[in-house]
């Protein structure tokens, strides 16, 4: 409908990692809230292995993006990180350097990278805020991923200082929603619980929750995160990162989340905890004060409702879901 109209400020927005949990949510929200001067391109690893410098340059040469939302990464839950800290470090450093350097070479006006609240120091005061990114070692379970992500903030400031580039980053808490990775070894906790609850329902067994169920987390629904990403693309003009999180009052325990997933599946055989499995970081309570200063009235989807929608999506898409 818009293609015949020329917009001087037309944005060509390259979304790396466009086929993942967050990428698919941005696709959905950018279609629901489309703007005439915005054209989105959603990349998958099939378009290019972004660890490869030449393949990454070829993508920039092909699409000549004016803006970049950089999501592509080696991503996984606690147990995947604990087994592959080196791969998380090396793969993410390679991907990030290729994206940011080509964003500079192709004159990208704004690049937004995605960090994570797990990168903050493990020994810290709470709530965590954006000024604490580099204040001491991260939790040992995910140091590879964490240092690679921290380096993005360093790279953003270096490109700004040396070339005046406008590269920034967002720091979401744990994300969940449709199109997640449900692999029982590699996944995050919510898709892992959803997959296990699906099997428990089928087999008439209890839902097995790894660890004690006591650790605390803030979870953001992928669709809410996607709406905030579009706001950052259109309105946020700092180089410094911004935490994208629900309020501290919405922090929940793993045990409470597991009960919500069990209820969403109407499981009849309850929940059991496997304390032989690690708990990981006890908590990473994040302040969204900076976000609330910009968007005091932003409405997050009620957690229970978002869990139910995520469960329904998995049940409806079980055959094709990433497992
Ligand atoms: P995801 O579902 O695992 O998706 C990862 C995406 O990256 C996929 O599109 C994948 O492409 C692409 N990708 C991976 N390796 C690649 C490579 N070598 N070359 C090109 N593309 C590659 O991840 P997500 O959960 O959406 O995460 C998106 C971003 O949010 C990441 O930067 C992650 O660190 C960050 N984050 C996630 C969470 C969370 O809880 N999930 C929390 C905080 C921050 P294919 O589909 O082709 O494999
Ligand atoms: O999402 P998750 O794997 O990672 O959550 P983190 C781990 C917590 O959930 C631990 C418990 O306390 C686990 O004991 N848990 C219970 C489970 N059942 C399960 C299950 O079936 N699967 C999983 N995975 N956990 C990650 C970082 O930390 O946070 C990543 O390692 C990334 O790098 C991600 O940043 C957002 O929240 O502990």
UniProtKB/TrEMBL annotation:
Pathway assigned in UniProt: Nucleotide-sugar biosynthesis; GDP-L-fucose biosynthesis via de novo pathway; GDP-L-fucose from GDP-alpha-D-mannose: step 2/2
What is the superkingdom listed in this entry's lineage? Eukaryota
One record GO biological process: 'de novo' GDP-L-fucose biosynthetic process
Q: Which InterPro entries match?
A: Epimerase_deHydtase, GDP_fucose/colitose_synth, NAD(P)-bd_dom_sf
- This protein's record includes keyword Isomerase: yes
Assigned keywords, A-Z: Isomerase, NADP, Oxidoreductase
| Coiled-coil ranges per UniProt | none
Q: Name one Pfam family in it.
A: Epimerase
> What Gene3D superfamilies does this protein map onto?
NAD(P)-binding Rossmann-like Domain, UDP-galactose 4-epimerase, domain 1
- Record GO terms (molecular function): GDP-L-fucose synthase activity; isomerase activity
Q: What is its EC number?
A: 1.1.1.271
Q: Which stretches make up the NAD-dependent epimerase/dehydratase domain?
A: 13-240
Its family? Answer: Belongs to the NAD(P)-dependent epimerase/dehydratase family. Fucose synthase subfamily.
**Protein task:** Catalyzes the two-step NADP-dependent conversion of GDP-4-dehydro-6-deoxy-D-mannose to GDP-fucose, involving an epimerase and a reductase reaction.
What is the protein's given name? GDP-L-fucose synthase
Q: What is the lineage of its organism?
A: Eukaryota, Metazoa, Ecdysozoa, Arthropoda, Crustacea
């Amino acid at each position: 409908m818009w293609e015949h109209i020329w917009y001087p400020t037309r944005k060509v927005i390259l979304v790396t990692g466009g086929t993942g949990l967050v990428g698919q949510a941005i696709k959905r929200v950018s279609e629901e809230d489309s703007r005439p001067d915005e054209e989105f391109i959603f990349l998958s690893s099939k378009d290019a292995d972004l660890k490869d410098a030449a393949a990454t340059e070829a993508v920039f040469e092909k699409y000549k993006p004016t803006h970049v939302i950089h999501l592509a990464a080696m991503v996984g839950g606690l147990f995947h990180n604990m087994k592959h800290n080196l791969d998380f470090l090396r793969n993410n450093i390679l991907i990030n350097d290729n994206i940011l350097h080509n964003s500079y070479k192709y004159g990208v006006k704004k690049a937004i990278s995605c960090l994570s609240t797990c990168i903050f120091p493990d020994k810290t005061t709470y709530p965590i805020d954006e000024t604490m990114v580099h204040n001491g070692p991260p939790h040992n379970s995910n140091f590879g991923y964490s240092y690679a992500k921290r380096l993005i903030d360093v790279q953003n400031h270096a490109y700004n200082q040396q070339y005046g580039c406008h590269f920034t980053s967002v720091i979401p808490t744990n994300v969940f929603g449709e199109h997640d990775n449900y692999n029982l070894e590699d996944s995050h906790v919510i898709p892992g619980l959803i997959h296990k609850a699906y099997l428990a329902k089928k087999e008439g067994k209890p839902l097995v929750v790894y660890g004690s169920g006591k650790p605390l987390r803030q979870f953001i629904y992928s669709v809410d995160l996607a709406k905030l990403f579009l706001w950052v693309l259109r309105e946020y003009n700092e180089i410094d990162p911004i935490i994208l999180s629900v309020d501290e009052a919405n922090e929940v325990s793993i045990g409470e989340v597991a009960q919500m997933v069990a209820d969403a599946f109407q499981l009849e055989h309850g929940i059991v905890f496997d304390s032989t499995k690690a708990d990981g970081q006890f908590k990473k309570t994040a302040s969204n004060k900076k976000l609330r200063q910009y968007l005091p009235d932003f409405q997050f989807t009620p957690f229970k409702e978002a869990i139910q929608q995520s469960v329904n999506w998995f049940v409806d898409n079980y055959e094709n879901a990433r497992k």
